[in-house]
Amino acid sequence: MRRRISLPLKLFLIVFAFVLSCIILISQLSYRYVQKEIRTNDIYYTKQILDKVDQYLTVNFSSFQTILFSVETSVKANINNTEVIKKQLRELYELNSNYVSNLYLINSDLSILGGSTLTRIFDEPLSDRKPLFDAADKNKRTTFVSDPYKSKYSGWTVTMVRYLNGSPFPMAIAIDLDLNAIEETLFKINKEEQMNLALITLSGKIIAGFSENRGPLNIQDHTFSIGEMSAEQILDTTGTSLQLHTKDGKPVSILKKSTEKFNWSIISINDESRLEAALSRLETYYIGLLVAGLVLSLFISFFVAKYIRNPLYALKIKMKRVEQGHLTTTVTMNRNDEFGDLSRAFDRMLQQIVELIRRAELHNELERKLEIQVLQSQINPHFLYNTLGSISNVIRLGQIEKVDVVIGSLISILEYGIADASEKVSLRQELQNVADYIAIQNIRYNRHFHLIENIEEGLMDFPVFRMLLQPIVENSIFHGYNGGGIEGSITIHAYEQGGIVMIEVVDQGEGIQADRIKHILDSEPSDLELKRKRIGLNNIHGRIRLHYGEQFGLQIISIPNEITRVRAIFPAGMFKGDA
Questions:
Q1: Contact 137, 170 (CB under 8 A)
Q2: DSSP classification of residue 400
Q3: With contact defined as beta carbons under 8 Å apart, do 331 and 318 qualify?
Q4: d(Cα 266, Cα 61) in Å, to the nearest integer?
Q5: Residue 182 zone, left/alpha/beta (φ > 0; ψ -120 to 50; rest)
């Protein structure tokens, strides 16, 4: 014979599985969320660093422009005094030697007047100055920035050159940038922020940057590649970020940003080691959370099972003794909860049964009354089961303090619902019943379904069918608001227009597709609705049409994910009588 599993053990297993599953699910979702946030924050932080570098370059560009304008003003004022020009070039160079490698004038024969020590001595014409002079001569109103190149006197540099307008003979002002100073700034950021930054031209040339610990980079002849992708191909890709793999298969993340003033790009290449370290710490925390969740699940399951098992076994013993014929059995259970109420109700029921049996022995007529009372008593356990089921939902949600609220609202609904269904009630009574229903749903789902009443004056006493609004409101919660999955407002309008009274229930939930609306009003109740004893919208629609005529009934107007309006249409005159 198959061994039966006791209810406390089933409850223990169910609670254990439920709590542990919830903890695992929440932990997994939290882990994925935090993982995503870490990646997002890492990208955001890197973009902030790139913005700071761009600001640094913009400030430098403005400083270099100021130097060029200062030289232009000085040269124009002393165009015929070469010694004064040389002196001022030297002073400006020494004043800005931390940022520039050289400051000089280029003559049309490609000779120079230099500010640095070397160019003051060696000022002979050089052919590599011709592209600079030609660029300045071609763009006389703007400042030209060269590609990085190897200068004889300044080393690896970039030159900013500007044509000297107003001079009696062709001449250009040039500044060789000290790329070592820019590179030191980038190296400092690389070290402090654990990044790998560099300035890149549009052709993929490295202007400055990339520390000696190059990691995934293959640097060659002032350019680089990652895996099979060259620097120029990386810069040509759309978007500001991309993921690549090195030749060893290791993933790297790349962020790039165009500078505001220079025709360069700032690029950051990271091997995700910092991100992996953070995720490793997160995994340790995640495992610890799962272990704690396992222990917590065992504790909660044991506590809940024990809390149910003791009164359940006491009631079971009492019922067995009653089954053996000991109708005077009393097992006192000093509990101020539903089990205590059930025990006391059971005792009272036994007392009533004993009294009925005693009376049955006195007269045969009492036997018929006893059978009637027994039949009636069969209703009470069913009513008690439904009541405890509703209270159980509240307890399962951990809202013990709201049990009295649920019981009060549930009693009002039951008293209202078990009356004669053909009896008409006022709209005020229907609204109160809806308010009780929403109060239970708010506690049950731990949501706030805000009920808004917009009733035209004089319609509060308008007679309507009993249980007219509650099924429509229930439909809004179960379908519009996804069975309590989301919350929102439910508005009830009532107004008279052209001899017709319209009562509307409006929600801002998921809505109903247009092809389903006619099916909802015309179809028969589903098996699920019959099983749950729920009143469908088609039932309400049919009752109104049967009572008042086919021109009345329900209208459903719905815009998916925006608004759903269920409108009940009645004649404003007197009733014609029940069909």
A1: yes
A2: G
A3: yes
A4: 15
A5: alpha
Q: Cα dihedral angle (208, 214, 217, 220), rounded to 10 degrees?
A: 60
Average pLDDT, the chain: 78
CA–CA separation, 291 vs 308, rounded Å? 26
Rounded Cα distance between 250 and 174, Å, is 44
Reported as a single tens digit per residue, the pLDDT across 320-348 is 777 777 666 666 666 666 667 777 777 77
**Cβ atoms 102, 115 nearer than 8 A:** yes
Q: Tell me the pLDDT band of 577, cut-offs 50, 70 and 90.
A: very low
3-class SS at 102? strand
What are the E-state strand segments in 99-193?
A: 100-107, 112-114, 143-145, 149-151, 155-157, 159-163, 171-177
Instruction: Specify which residues 260 forms β-bridges with.
Output: none
pLDDT at 225: 83
**Rounded-to-integer distance, Cα 133 and Cα 105, Å:** 10
* DSSP structure string for 342-393: HHHHHHHHHHHHHHHHHHHHH-THHHHHHHHHHHHHTHHHHHHHHHHHHHHH
Q: Are 42 and 241 in contact (CB under 8 A)?
A: no
The whole-angstrom separation of Cα 310 and Cα 290 is 30
Q: What burial class does residue 159 get, using C-beta atoms within 10 Å of its C-beta: 0-12 exposed, 13-18 middle, 19+ buried?
A: buried
Exposure of 285 in the CB half-sphere (CA atoms within 13 A): 13
